[in-house]
Amino acid sequence: MSQINHWQHYFPQLGENQAFEQATQQTQNAINNLFKNADKAYSGLEPALLKEQINAIDFSQSTPLQEVIDNTNELIAKNSILVQHPHTIAHLHTPPLIASVVAEQFIASLNQSMDSWDQAPAATFVEQKMVDWLCETYQLGEHSDGVFTSGGTQSNLMGLLLARDWFAYQQSQHDVQQDGLPDYAQKMRIICSDKSHFTVQKSASLMGLGERSVVLVKTNVQGQIDINELQLTIDALKAQDLLPFAVVAMAGTTDHGAIDDLQAVVDIARNAGCWSHVDGAYGAALQLSTQHKDRLKGIESADSVSVDFHKLFYQTISCGALLIKNKANFNTLLHHADYLNREGDELPNLVDKSIATTKRFDALKMFMTLKAVGEEKLGEFYDYLLALTQQVANKISENQYFELCCTPLLSTVLFRLSPLVKGDLSEIEFNQLHQQLRLTLLTSGEAVIAETKVDGKLVLKFTLLNPCLTLNDFDTLLDKIEHSTKALINKK
């Protein structure tokens, strides 16, 4: 009996939660102190030393939890990127709202499994409530439905998976779930723009169609899919006896923030007998904006939509959803398991529309956020950020050390060092200077900015997601970049 009581010390037990309270309070104090004392985007060890110290951890001997928490704070927390810092501005990686962080405490402690109702009674209804809100928000119609996912990668995979199975049945009443890929699978094609996310190709590979089944359509100067080229591409594929079955539209490309003409893409897809999928992982949040909602016109007509909440909805990682216009298409994912979705069970089991079995209760984060913050305030965040992005772009274009690559479309700014800085450097040396600059800022902890390529040229990128940013934050950031650039050039 004493042994059992000893084990209970490691678990939060009903009525015996002193150890749980101590551990959670100790952890919270450590995090609070970290945030209070943070003056850099990264204040940790250099990469090689950090790797060495983490790899040196020995799991063969247990350590008191209090000591484990202290050690984790020193080795992990203090060697992490602070996403709340104004100069952490590289990726689609947001500071989470307090409501979302608090929700994580409920999620982790309750540990509900979102596959069957008897494992997650209230949680099941909360997720469906949030799905219904999303379907209504995006005006997908009375037959729509959705499911929470880990993010855009899973959502895009599920959307294209449903498209594949739908098309096979429409084409020849072929049941992919039961019989595998049809004999014409090698002819099936997915169409997207050359600025689409790489998960389109990744999904095609995972679905057994191969990356070569993805056909890229060129984009215009704004990074949007060329509508005329889209129609010509579909016509050309059909003329070659190939089978286009899905068209992916972008509601916010990762680098440019481009939003395709969604209505035109959906109309072309429907007329061609194709499924239309909107990848809205970045930009679909604009549906809550009063100033920019119209840019998503047509999203309500799509067959499926990906939405990411750990981006512009400010949720902790990970949190996303796939929404579909016709809930009947989820039936291709249905698989009966006697211990989960029992025949005749009138209670809802969310495993019926998910490729995951065990799934986190992430819907609670959006549930609590909407109650604590509200739709209107979230929309105001976006309006502010898009306006600030334009101001930052103007500031860069007015600085002789920088060159703006293009006019921002959402909240990303693409730029590079100017010809004045390049001087006699070759294009290869100039690209290397950009790389060195980004790494110098990162390893010094001064700033976390991104690099990418546009038209074969390496460029730098700001991604503005933090609504607490001001224009003054970019004055100091640009000064840091300019100072680091001069130091690197002087070393050459």
Write structural notes for this entry.
This protein is α/β, with parallel strands linked by helices. The protein has two domains: 105-372, Type I PLP-dependent aspartate aminotransferase-like (Major domain) (Aspartate Aminotransferase, domain 2); 377-491, Alpha-Beta Complex (Aspartate Aminotransferase, domain 1). The protein is 42% helix and 12% strand. It contains 16 helices and eleven strands. The strands form two sheets. The chain has a seven-stranded mixed sheet with strand order 1-7-6-5-4-2-3, with helices on both faces. Strand 4, helix 11 (262-271) and strand 5 (275-280) form a beta-alpha-beta unit. The mean pLDDT is 93.
Helix content: 40-55%
Walk across the major sheet and give the strand order: 1-7-6-5-4-2-3
**Share of β-strand residues:** 5-15%
Please give the number of β-strands. 11
Uncertain regions spanning at least 5 consecutive residues: none
Instruction: Provide the CATH top-level class of the largest domain.
Output: Alpha Beta
Structural class: alpha/beta
Shape: globular
CATH topology of the largest domain: Aspartate Aminotransferase, domain 2
CATH architecture of the largest domain: 3-Layer(aba) Sandwich
If you compute it from the alpha carbons, what radius of gyration comes out, rounded to the nearest whole angstrom? 25 Å
Run of helices and strands: HHHHHHEHHEHEHEHEEEHHEEHHEEH
Question: Would you tell me the overall average pLDDT?
Answer: 93
Largest sheet: 7 strands, mixed
Q: CATH-wise, what's the superfamily of the largest domain?
A: Type I PLP-dependent aspartate aminotransferase-like (Major domain)
Terminal CA distance reads: 71 Å
Helix segment count?
16
Domain count: 2
